[in-house]
Design brief:
The structure is a homodimer of 571-residue chains. Chain A folds into three domains: 32-71 and 108-236 and 401-452, BirA Bifunctional Protein, domain 2 (2-Layer Sandwich); 252-381, YbaK protein (Alpha-Beta Complex), CATH 3.90.960; 460-569, Anticodon-binding domain (Rossmann fold). The two termini of chain A are 26 Å apart. In chain A, helix 1 packs across helix 12 (444-454), helix 2 runs antiparallel to helix 6 (167-187) and helix 2 (44-63) crosses helix 12 (444-454). Helix content of chain A is 28%, strand content 28%. The radius of gyration of chain A is 29 Å and the shape is globular. In chain A, strands 3, 7, 8, 9, 10, 11, 12, 21 and 24 form a nine-stranded mixed beta sheet that branches. The first copy, chain A, is of the alpha+beta class and 571 residues long. The longest helix of chain A is centred in the first third of the chain and has 21 residues, at 167-187. At the A-B interface, strand 1, strand 2, helix 2, strand 3 and strand 4 of A face strand 1, strand 2, helix 2, strand 3 and strand 4 of B.
């Protein structure tokens, strides 16, 4: 492609709303442009990168026996009612009506359509296993679209689904996907880790995430550098030193006027935060209240709570708390709570004595609380966030926290969807059984943005060959000069003849302007054709990643560079 | 692919709602499945065919310098208000609200997004020309989705857009597209014609359609077999013999009780239909009434009327007709119409005398009408449908009518969109000018369905190599037989090694069942491996298109068949 004809609108200015490097660089290098909040156009250069990622995904999915298909983005809402996810997705799902007032939605994922296909057109165990995948636009009405293409309202996803006869067969399909995902992310040149993760709205019996290490990531991982334990904080477990056993004490109601937060109460009573009981009230949808107890210095992990309750949850509203406990949040606790309700407590406060809790009366707390004696705890469980410095549950070494971008997520769904939608098969004995399903996603934009997050410098992007939109950037310092132009054109033709994707900067602009654009676009190799070196039959070959240059014979440039690309591409 | 592992749900039954062959065969051969009205899933086999068509389109668009990008399907409605098309598209556009109650739509086409991109990121004449294209799902809320994938509510379209400095440059981009379209449809093996067409909601100064000849088509073409004139009936012109000049007569009001239609009035007055004036009332939106006069045996061409009026039109409601003319439809006419209104008349009634028209009084007509003397016609124009038997405007030969499927449509838009959205460039003299645009579409499903319409027999589809999902169908009559299985597997491996896409029917079903499925799927070549012929070292090679068979050496089958495919693919 000749730059004079290409539509690659580069810009020096950093867009005011772009905080993270990938967002800034994708705008500045002319890869994408926003049309509305969380909605982007992929310009030609950006779309070339996306297509290279898509091709890699397709090859690896085909390699594990995946069959590509394409499911509709417009779905009849009825199939989403069958699984209850029309409700569960809430405002995150785009809904609309057609001209006959029939309710439709834009699919945020495709388990429902898969089950509908399967129940209609899969009959027997002989039709299984199946691996179906598609690479397609998904729609989610994010409350806060942000970080460029990392969190948008329409995005391209590879989603695949396995249909199997039983759990063992599901495990096989799941493992095949893990293998394919490793190949995909490795080929794309990403630094990533695999972590245990929460299944969230997807449900099912287990899941893992493939996470790109990046400060720009919105996910937080808990890692053990000693034994390799790695998990999303959503599910990460840890062990902590139990508190020294305090002496038992009698219950005493004390006035704590104006002290409502853990910090305020600790300061007022001159106790440490960890000696307080943090009391929260949640509603297990639609209306069952649940009280949660944690140590004052710990934070609730909502995902663990949701998994424990097996249902959608939400924090109780202030008026609900008042009605349930007889006091406002900040003064509530497990002791003498009037209404009968389920009380769940984090493992860390089991057997603790002489603690402080709200008295269920505004501006009062109770001291001397003995959990075993005074709190009617129904269940102790791991309900807190693991955090940096906690001990690894596997080896005891201190854990560290790091940010990461979710690239892919693989789920063992089991029969959650097939049961609710009646997707069954006849087994060898003629008996109807629910199809056992898995679901697997990759965010294509996430691959591209994560790569840029991990591979850039002050001057721009640093592509590898796998994702680079072109491999070589030919830079004649003055395209108006006949010798230089002839050399540049000859190189351009030479690369075309060898199917090496090259960009030729044939614009009549200053060399400095060209060099800046070339570093910004970040193609792996630059061939700079200047008057002086060309007079000696040489051109300059610059490697974008190392920023090193060498002079090579102009006549051998095409052959030599093609060889370099072939060699480095297969590393 | 081995059929035992593939998801290709064939069926014998013709779906009850499928009328046309492509619809029936795409369901029966397991290419697609409906999810809802006008919404289809492409199953693996169907999606392979779609991807082959897409690859051909992509190659030819790249060959004319097109740059592929991807624009959002979710659009902010504001840009559609800027061009007035939020109104013009009416119920055909899907609209929705996001969680913040902002209005969005699903893009039915992308001129607005292109103009938004262009006004923000195209500055100078140096940035032009541009050819931008995408291959993407479009959404249109069709009032009557039908004919399988020919008229659906979401479909895949290649749409491209040219941005140019002036009309001459637009002509170049338009001609490049015409060339690319010819290559695409020729390579796909379609029989098609190019016709003049109406620009409709798209607007602009000219357009042409690429039409696949097919009885299943919803479009009607007017063709001259003598000189090659071809046009969609929307715009087709024709000449007709003028009526013999009747003698002038005096106006006379006559009672025509109960006679309202042309047929009824002609019968009642014992006159020929062509001696009557057909009077219609339309509303030029929002509220200007227009009266249209045609010869009684002619039909109004709404598209020609709309083009003449340069605006959206609709037939007047009965109460509007009553209010405007003082009588009901069936008794209205140009003579003595009370209210002042624009009267348009078809060229065919210019200078006609002694005709019959409604009297603008229920149950009365006027005879002796002399158009020049009695009807205050503002404009004579071509307003009627050309029809079979009319004379060609170019050569006078009789025209014929035929049905066809619209494959592609190319438009010279001019500055319609760039002016309304302010998409300008600075010319060489630093002056702001509107970008001159073209717009070009291809319906990918239309290629596939049209091909099937043109290439099928009683047993199934007859693919060519360009679109076939696989080139060869290997049919071991009994896969349980060791010799047969070994031969089948060897062929399968041999084809894989030569990158020939082959389907192996390794299922344990009867030979007859396999043969029926093979003819239904319609791959170009079938290799049948039977016990008897294999004992003599032979396999049977069957050509699906000619239904002819030959015995060939099993050991040479792979080489020979690969050669046949290479030779026939490049014809």
């Amino acid at each position: 492609m000749k730059l004079s004809q290409a539509y690659i609108p580069t810009q020096k200015e950093i867009p005011s709303d772009a905080v993270i490097p990938s967002h800034q660089l994708m705008i500045r290098a002319g890869l994408v442009r926003p049309l509305a909040a969380g909605i982007y156009t992929y310009l030609p250069l950006g779309w070339r990168v996306m297509r290279k990622a898509i091709d890699i995904i397709r090859e690896e999915m085909d390699a594990i026996g995946g069959q590509e298909l394409l499911m509709p983005m417009l779905n009849p809402i009825e199939i989403w009612d069958e699984t209850g996810r029309n409700r569960d997705f809430g405002d995150e799902m785009f809904r609309l009506k057609d001209r006959k007032n029939r309710a439709l939605n834009l699919a945020p994922t495709h388990e429902e359509v898969i089950c509908d296909l399967a129940r209609k057109f899969v009959n027997s165990y002989k039709d299984l296993p199946q691996i179906w995948y598609q690479i397609q636009t998904k729609f989610r009405d994010e409350p806060r679209p942000r970080s460029g293409v990392l969190r948008t309202r329409q995005f391209i996803m590879k989603d695949s689904y396995t249909l199997d006869v039983d759990q063992e067969a599901l495990n096989t399909g799941y493992d095949l996907h893990a293998k394919a995902y490793h190949s995909i992310f490795r080929r794309c040149g990403l630094r990533y880790v695999v972590v245990g993760a929460a299944s969230g709205l997807m449900g099912g019996s287990g899941s893992q995430e493939f996470m790109a290490e990046s400060d720009a990531g919105e996910d937080t991982l808990i890692l053990c550098e000693q034994c390799g334990y790695a998990a999303n904080t959503e599910v990460a477990e840890s062990t902590i030193e139990p508190l020294e056993t305090a002496a038992s004490a009698a219950l005493e109601k004390v006035a704590t006027p104006g002290a409502y937060t853990i910090e305020e109460v600790a300061a007022f009573l001159q106790r440490e935060k960890k000696e307080l009981i943090k009391t929260l009230v949640y509603i297990r949808q639609p209306e069952t209240p649940v009280m949660i107890l944690l140590r004052g210095d710990h934070d609730l992990n909502e995902n663990k709570l949701q998994t424990l309750l097996g249902h959608v949850i939400r924090p109780a509203h202030p008026n609900e708390i008042k009605q349930i406990c007889g006091a406002d949040a900040g003064s509530v606790g497990p002791v003498g709570v009037s209404q009968k309700l389920t009380i769940l407590a984090d493992n860390a406060i089991r057997d603790q004595k002489n603690m402080v809790a709200g008295a269920n009366e505004n501006d009062y707390h109770v001291t001397g609380v003995d959990i075993g004696r005074d709190a009617a705890v129904d269940t102790f469980a791991d309900l807190r966030n693991a955090s940096s410095g906690d001990a690894c549950i596997q080896c005891g070494a201190p854990l560290i926290m790091t940010n990461a971008i979710e690239l892919g997520h693989i789920f063992k769904l089991g029969t959650k969807y097939s049961e609710s939608m009646g997707a069954t098969y006849l087994d060898e004995h003629g008996k109807d059984r629910s199809i056992v399903m898995g679901s697997y996603g990759i965010g294509v934009e996430r691959i591209v943005a994560s790569f840029i997050e991990q591979n850039n410098d002050d001057n721009g992007i640093i592509w590898n060959y796998a994702l680079a939109p072109y491999a070589v950037h030919i830079i004649p310092v003055n395209y108006g000069d006949e010798d230089i132009r002839e050399c540049a054109d000859a190189l351009y033709r030479g690369f075309a003849g060898r199917s090496v994707a090259a960009l030729l900067d044939d614009r009549q602009v200053s060399p400095g302007f060209k060099f800046k654009d070339a570093d910004l676009l970040g193609l792996p190799l630059q061939v700079i054709i200047g008057k002086k070196s060309l007079a000696q039959g040489k051109v300059e070959l610059k490697h974008r990643n190392t920023c090193t240059s060498e002079l090579i014979d102009a006549g051998e440039a095409v052959v030599k560079i093609t060889a370099i690309i072939e060699q480095e591409s297969t590393q």
